[in-house]
Amino acid sequence: MAADADSSSPTRRPWRGVEADERQARRRRQLLDAAFAIMGTEGAAAVTMRGVCRRARLTERYFYESFSGREELLVEVLAATANRAREVLLTALADAPGEPLEFIRHVVRAFTEFVTADPRRGRVLFVESLAAPELTSSGASMVGDFTATIADGLGRTDVTAAHADEHDLRLNAQAVFGALAYLYQAWLTGAIDVDRDRFVEHVAQVIGNLARSTSVR
C-alpha cells in the first residue's frame, strides 16, 4: 500500500515544498473521497477503515490522523454531500423566475441535475442516510438545515396561502422534505420508473400543493 513520503518523519517540516498541514488536508480529502465512492456504490455497510485506506492508497495510521473512527467518517461524507446539495438549492433559489410554479420547477430541476449528475450523491443523501443507523443523529441535523432552506424558498413565492404564517411555512417545509426524501429514494432506486421530465414535474406539483397548506384560522 502506498503512503506519503513523510510517513516516518517525526517533524512537520515541508516536504517537496508542501507544508505538513496541507499534506494532512490532502490525505483527509483522499479518505473522504474513497469513503464517498464506496458508500455511494456499495452502501454505508461496506465502508470499513481498511477498505477506505486501501482505496485511498494510504496506510491505516493516516485514518486516525483525521477520523476517530468509521462513524465519524460516514457522518463527514454525508455532511459534505448534503452541504453541496444545499449550495445547489441556494443558488437555484437566488436565480429562480418569479412565477410560483416555474420558481419551483427551476429549483427542482437544478436539484435533480445535481443528484443525477453523480448517482452516488443521490444514494448517499436518500438511501444510505435513511438506512445507516450511524447516520441517524447527523441526518436529523441535515434535515434541519434543509427544511430551513426550503422554508426560506417557500417564503419567497406566492405559492403559499395568502394568510399563511411562520408556523405554516415551517410545517410545510417539513412536509416537503419528507415527501422529497421518499420520492427521490423511490425514483433513484428504480422503484418508480418514470423519465426525468415527468419526475421533475410531479415533484414540483407535490411541492406546490404542500406549500398551500395552512392551519391558520
UniProtKB/TrEMBL annotation:
Phylogenetic placement of the source organism: Bacteria, Bacillati, Actinomycetota, Actinomycetes, Pseudonocardiales
Region (Disordered): 1-22
Full protein name: TetR/AcrR family transcriptional regulator
Annotated HTH tetR-type domain residues: 25-85
Compositionally skewed regions (Polar residues) per UniProt: 1-11
Domain of life: Bacteria
Keyword field: DNA-binding
UniProt-listed SUPFAM superfamilies: Homeodomain-like, Tetracyclin repressor-like, C-terminal domain
Entry-linked InterPro entries: Homeodomain-like_sf, HTH-type_TetR-like_transc_reg, HTH_TetR, Tet_transcr_reg_TetR-rel_C_sf
Positions of the DNA-binding region: 48-67
Any Pfam family hit: TetR_N
